[in-house]
Amino acid sequence: MSIIHVIILAIIEGITEFLPVSSTGHMVIASSLMGISKDEFVKLFEIVIQLGAILAVVVLYFKRFFRSLDFYYKLIVGVIPAVILGILLKKHIDKLLESPLVVAYAFVIGGVILLFVDKWFNKPTVTKEQDISYLTAFKIGCFQCLAMVPGVSRSAASIVGGMSQKLNRTAAAEFSFFLAVPTMFGATLKDLWDFHKDNHLDSGTLHHDIIYLLIGSAIAFVVALLAIRTFITFLEQKGFKLFGFYRILAGLVIIILYYSGNTLHNM
Predict the structure, then answer these.
(1) CB neighbours of 32 closer than 8 A, spacing ≥ 6?
(2) What number of other Cβ atoms are within 10 A of residue 222's Cβ?
(3) Confidence band for 135, pLDDT divided at 50, 70 and 90
(4) Helix or strand or coil: residue 233?
(5) Residues 6+ apart with CB under 8 A from 75
C-alpha cells in the first residue's frame, strides 16, 4: 500500500461515507482495481479513515452534541444492535470485506430499493431529532446493522430505517450521521486493539502505519466536510432515485468485470 493508494482511498471515503452508496463497498472495489493486497493493515485502514470522515459530523453539527443528555441516550440505544452483532459476527464480516462480488450484488439490491423508497415513505411525521423516540432510535440502529454486509451502505440502511419510522428525509439523514459517530468510534477502537494485539510490529513499521492512518483520516475528514452539506441539499431537493440508478449501474459493471476475470478478482 503506497501513499498514492492512501490518498485515493481517503478521498473515496470522504465523498461516499454519507452518500447512500456504501463507502466500504467503494473502497473494496478501489482496492481491488489498484491491486492492493487485502492484509490486516488495509482492513484496519479502511475502518479508521471512516472515523476520520465521520468526525466531520461533530464539527458541522457541533451545537447538537451539547444540546441535551437525551441526545446521547438515543445514540446509545441506537448503537446497541451494532455493538452486539459486531462482536458476534466480526470474523464473518472480515471475510465479506474481501469480496468485490458481495459488494456488487449489494449495490444492485440496494439500488432497486432506493428507486422506490421515496414513494414508500412519503408521509413523514417526524422532522427533527428531538422528536425521535428511544424505540425509534433502536429500530434505526437495527437497520444500520444491515451495513455490516459491504456494499449495503450504513448511510442508506439507517436513513431508510429512519424514513420507515416516519422521519422525513432530512431528519433521517441527520440522525444517520449522528448515529455513525459512536458506531464508528467503537469499531475503530476495537479494530485498533485487535490489530495491536495480533500484530507485533517493530518501531519502524509502526511509525509508517501511524503516518498512513493519520494522513488518510485527515483527507477523509476534509473531503467529508464538503460532502455532507452538498448531500443534504441534494437529498431535500431530489430524493434517492439518482443514487438508486447509480448503485444498479455500478453493481452491474462490477459483476461484468468480475466474471470477465481480467480486472477484478477475489482478494
Answers:
(1) 100, 264, 265, 267
(2) 16
(3) very high
(4) helix
(5) 137, 178, 179, 181, 182
